[in-house]
Amino acid sequence: MSYDAETVREILDKVRAEGRDSLTAPEGKRVCDAYGIPTPGEGLAATADEAVALAEKIGFPVVLKIVSPDILHKTEAGGVLVGVSDSDAARAGFDQIIANAKNYKADAQIDGVQVQQMVGGGQEVIIGATTDPTFGKVVAFGLGGVLVEVLKDVTFRLAPVSQDEALSMLDGIAAAEVLKGARGADPVDADTLADVLRRVSELVTDFPEISEFDLNPVFASKDGAVAADVRIILQTGPVPQKRQIPQEEILRVMTKMMNPTAVAVIGASDQDGKIGNSVMKNLINGGYQGGIHPINPKADEIMGRKAYKSVKDIPGDVDVAVFAIPAKFVPAALEECGDKGIPAAVLIPSGFAETGNHELQDEIVEIAERRNIRMLGPNIYGYYYTPQNLCATFCTPYDVKGGVALTSQSGGIGMAILGFARSTKMGVSAIVGLGNKSDIDEDDLLTYFEQDENTNVMAMHLEDLKDGRAFVDAAKRMTKKKPVIVLKAGRTDMGARAASSHTGALAGNDKVYDDILKQAGVIRAPGLNEMLEYARGVPLLPTPQGENVVIITGAGGSGVLLSDAVVAEGLSLMDIPPDLDEAFRKFIPPFGAAGNPIDITGGEPPSTYEATIRLGLEDPRIHSLILGYWHTIVTPPMVFAELTARVVEEARAKGIDKPVVASLAGDVEVERACEYLYDRRIVAYPYTTEKPVAVLGAKYRWARAAGLLG
């Protein structure tokens, strides 16, 4: 797509050279024209005669608007007249607008009056872009009028967007049906509207000094789209650039950190209760086979290992230094790590930015960058990497190996992760604390675990993102191969920062996160338990081959709740065709119910469960099964669990592997039945209809994002 970038550069440079931070309407029109963004025909009139001539050339009715770099809010100044219908009205309107502007701001520079073709009809929408502190350039879309102002029905994507991503924005608002022609209205031209979104996103990407961009309103109809008003705000001062580390360098250092040949413990101690003592115990007792070098200037030996006064005294290479010393001593020790050529530092100590001591954190960041050291932390519990039996932490040791890598910014959340992993026998490849994220953050970890053969899913608790754009790039790569689950904590409103901007004021922090995490293909978990359950269950379920979900239940009440959960998770209950309906009816009593849910009723023997589950697995039109079990003496919990596992295993032996999840209602025996099923890759929960469907929904969200659904 060719754009006239030279014209835009000339306009923006002129505006900034004049010390302005906003463009006039004619300047905005020229910028839009340069990028093919549709705006009405218009011209600038310096006199009433020119206004009349322009209006007659454009064609009545027209809109008149004051043009002044000193008047940003034109309506407030009485600087807008709509529906000017003839030459006399154009002449009088010009004089009235000039008078209103002078009355509003006597010393305002007035360039003239913009005469603009009056547009309308169709559906009002808003298209804009803002500069988010986490993600940078973000493009926004929503319906105009009350729907966007009051209901905040707006959606966001990271700029630039492709045409397909732009089209997904049209479907991403709650009122999407309005655009498709609700109540007999004509549908809007979606391709043209998406094209405008794409062009806006490319404009703000090409010119990062554009901090806010609003087209409001845009009139969208079946014949196209045209923006009635444009507003462009520029950033004053230099545009900051975030540090970029090449992917190969990230991988090199992260590989050394996770698979070190030797670890130094700075602040190692023989004294129980000291952090340096706990780290040493965990490294030794955890079974790590590499070199373990205690650093303590006052000791000759710690836990049977030779102690050194400095890391510089250690013979041979060291890949990781774990810091267990007070914050004030970290800078000097970090310099010594630089002298030794240690590539990774794990900073357990607190007392940095989290306590308000930003100067000390800035100091260690400067040292690390200068000495080519990557830092994890500070203010963390350390990290675990089970394939290497590496337990570099002062917290509980952990040795249950599995395929889940987990990260958290919080130590407390980290320990909740550890406890859940142990109690559910989930097993992990890694648990990593991120703390203040002075350097290493989520995108570094994504880059490593994307290619780590010991990891098949990643779950992350995060309170913020240091570089949202780098995170999205890394997440998009990883989610093509492995699921990424995110629990985003903290919901703040950045509207106050940009209260003067329509788009900016709508860009509530959490809404931006929600939409862009979806764009990145990650699964967002609503809470800590959900994050952990998704991490446990999603990798066990096979990837579904289509959207058709069928519920088989022994209890009508469970069937209703399971149906509600299916809808809430965005899943599709299959519309059962007549031949399949007839096939199911052969196995259920006359007072049961086919259709979907398939209600076999509670009094049925094990053979009914077995026959209907087998049919659900073997019919290729069904892609996923949800089972609702009701505890009866006729079919006890373990009988149900064993027959279900057997039928599923028989299907797998034939090459049929569909997601199967189960909700078990009953007495306490259902707990053991659920454990039995879970151990056999059937995600099952007692006393809840929501959890199994939520895990299935998470699997579907990942499969859709990764383009894996049949």
UniProtKB/TrEMBL annotation:
Residues 29-65 form the ATP-grasp domain. The keyword Ligase applies. The keyword Zinc-finger does not apply. Keywords: ATP-binding, Ligase, Nucleotide-binding. GO terms for molecular function: ligase activity. InterPro entries: ATP-grasp (IPR011761), ATP_grasp_subdomain_1 (IPR013815), CoA-bd (IPR003781), Ligase_CoA_dom (IPR043938), NAD(P)-bd_dom_sf (IPR036291), Succ_CoA_lig_flav_dom (IPR032875), Succinyl-CoA_synth-like (IPR016102). This is Acetate--CoA ligase family protein. The lineage of its organism: Bacteria, Bacillati, Actinomycetota, Actinomycetes, Pseudonocardiales.
